[in-house]
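Example record used in the benchmark description.
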Amino acid sequence: MATIFDDIKYRMGNAPILKQLIYTNVGVFIAVHLAVVVLMLFNVTSHEWLSFLEVPSRLSALPYRFWTIFTYMFVHYDVWHLLFNMLWLYWFGSIYIQYFSQKHLSVLYIVGGLAGAALYLLSYNVFPYFADKQGMMCGASAAIMAIVFATAIRVPDYKVNLMFVGAVSLKYIAAVVIIIDLLSMTSPNAGGHFAHIGGALMGAIFALCWNRGKDILSPVNNLMDRIVSGWGRPKIRFKHTPSPKKKSAPKNNQSPNDAERKRPETDGEYRMRKKQEAEEIDRILDKIKKSGYSALTTEEKQRLFDVRKK
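Model output (structure tokens):
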């Protein structure tokens, strides 16, 4: 069993960010619904515990469930809810990473989801229409809307083929989606539509600033890098060792340092090396997008060439 979980952890750590987001959403869906099934076997049919994963509309409840502004964007009600969102995430995420970067995808997903939760809470606690209404919200739609609108603003004339319609520019898809949300602000899923608008606004602001040469997500990106690096850093363990003895010279005229370098990598060292290599490639690709291929140094061009050969 430990081997299975180690394999899943390894694959998750080395998968592209887009796949990691999809795997996380699917994994959470399976875990939540498996818990529901197990509880039903014990005649526990109440699903009130799910409220600890969803964003409450009441501000008074939020301090006791503050983590829900993060967890809600990975939780889905049913298979169709999950499938629809993951298809949108895959389609637009695949286009997004061509014009931004892998790291910006994960950061915008989180920030877009937070913006959606913020507008959801604001709408329920400001507009008189919701005075006698309460709700709970979950789903990745707001986070995905941020990605959709950032992509549509970055490359508005990029065309995708829609069934029965043909080639349609992203700007028209985004326009239709936001109009539907605006017209649905008093529907039974009003809170969800407000969240969509919040995510869309976040994605639009990010892309507009990016087009002007400013990355407003850079502070969040740096913070996430520090957190991930802290978790991934190998732990240092101290132990008592006997007095050093004179070591025999390594065979084949190798120095002790050479022999040390040729030892097999640990899993942690391998994952760290792969992470650093991926970050270096992301940095080079970002440089190409901003300044063109000619701006690369000889070492950076060689690095890209080596990656292509692999």
